[in-house]
Amino acid sequence: MHEGAMIRALYSLVTWFAQPLLLTKLRRRGAAEPGYLHAVDERFGRYTTARPAGDGPLIWIHAVSLGETRAAAILLAALRERWPGMRLLLTHGTATGRAEGAKLLRAGDVQVWQPWDSRGAVRRFLAHFRPDVGVLMETEVWPNLIHEAAACGVPMVLVNARLSGKSLRGAQRAGGLLRPAYRALTAAWAQTEADAARLAAIGVRHVGVLGNLKFDARPDAAQQARAERWRAALGGRPVVMLASSREGEEVEFIKCFKAPALEGQAPEAIEKRAKLRPLWLIVPRHPQRFVDVAATARAAGLAVVQRSQWSESPPPEAVTADVWIGDTLGEMTLYYSLAEAALLGGSFAPLGGQNLIEAAACGCPIVMGPHTFNFAQAAELAEAAGAARRVVDLKQGVACAHGLLADAGARRRMSRAGLAFALEHQGAAERSADALAALLEPANSAV
């Protein structure tokens, strides 16, 4: 047995013994998000749902969480156009991903949990569903999953692939386990040239650069129209958003906007800022934190209203509130279209930032912190295009947002730049569908 096989055998032993820990984790997560308690047996490769019937290709798409599922939706639209009779097997790892993925299903499609990466669970999954191809979204490389799929002759591709420098270093430290998994991929279609170089460095043999699927997303027109109505209800009061915030960022954000830095500013600028009185909109990245973030804002003495507390129009108490908590899923277009500026969550702590493309596509000026390594090229291109501004911390970010509120011309320029930036980089969905066709239809396509 060679070294790689020995390491994977040890890994497989660990994953088998860790199954009780997985159950404990699911029960703990399920206390806050009941979706984690649904169909738990599927996590261990025990499925009651039949393999999708039909003559079209059975395409398995794995989208672990919410962001990956939204990217998968863009790809899926292009795939259905190419293969109207395709059958979909959709898997996830998180409750939010599965809830979002349910919206993508059509008659005959199947949605289940991704199997835990033990040999037994993976083998049962593959034997039960027998997909024609496996499409892993963005970063999801699991050693046993890739190895067993290759043994079954299922081509596995990493689509919309990204690999940060930090992730590459981690993968290289676990090279004996992960390098064979990356090498066993049929292909990886990267978002950027830098991602492609890192994927090649960790062992992927066939790498292409097809762009970022998220540029192909279209803002929801109904949500944009609702945002316009809400602007009218607010009577011209401006909205500043902390988008997809992570733990710790909300506390610092609240401190900054409660006591904004005024040193060195002219008295008329200070007076103008005081008159603006923005409405602060906080949209946490993870739904299990909605309640805690709302409680944090109230503990700071702020008048807080949660978006989930009304339907069509904000009530009077929302119009006069200090803070809104965006505690709903699937309404980011609404929030970005409402905001005069958005501070990019995850970029003010060393977490790599969040996707800024949707903000740009909605024409929302972006203020981002120093940490955007998960979306490095998109952040750099947005800044170069004039759609985003870079700051060193949240204190400077809040000051930058105040400056934009006072400068309508700058906001218009950033908004137009964001729309042009988003439009310029579209096309990844069609390119990815073409690449999949080359795998599934080798007689009619160049490999």
From TrEMBL:
The active site is at residue 68. One of its GO terms (biological process) is lipid A biosynthetic process. Keywords: Cell membrane, Lipopolysaccharide biosynthesis, Membrane, Transferase. InterPro entries: Glycos_transf_N, Glycos_transf_N_sf, Kdotransferase. It is an enzyme of class 2 (transferase). It is found in: Cell membrane. It comes from the Bacteria. Involved in lipopolysaccharide (LPS) biosynthesis. Catalyzes the transfer of 3-deoxy-D-manno-octulosonate (Kdo) residue(s) from CMP-Kdo to lipid IV(A), the tetraacyldisaccharide-1,4'-bisphosphate precursor of lipid A. Its EC number is 2.4.99.12. GO terms for molecular function: Kdo transferase activity. SUPFAM superfamilies: UDP-Glycosyltransferase/glycogen phosphorylase. Residues 40-217 form the 3-deoxy-D-manno-octulosonic-acid transferase N-terminal domain. One of its GO terms (cellular component) is plasma membrane. The record marks 138, 214 as: Transition state stabilizer. Belongs to the glycosyltransferase group 1 family. It catalyses: lipid IVA (E. coli) + CMP-3-deoxy-beta-D-manno-octulosonate = alpha-Kdo-(2->6)-lipid IVA (E. coli) + CMP + H(+). Pathway: Bacterial outer membrane biogenesis; LPS core biosynthesis. This is 3-deoxy-D-manno-octulosonic acid transferase.
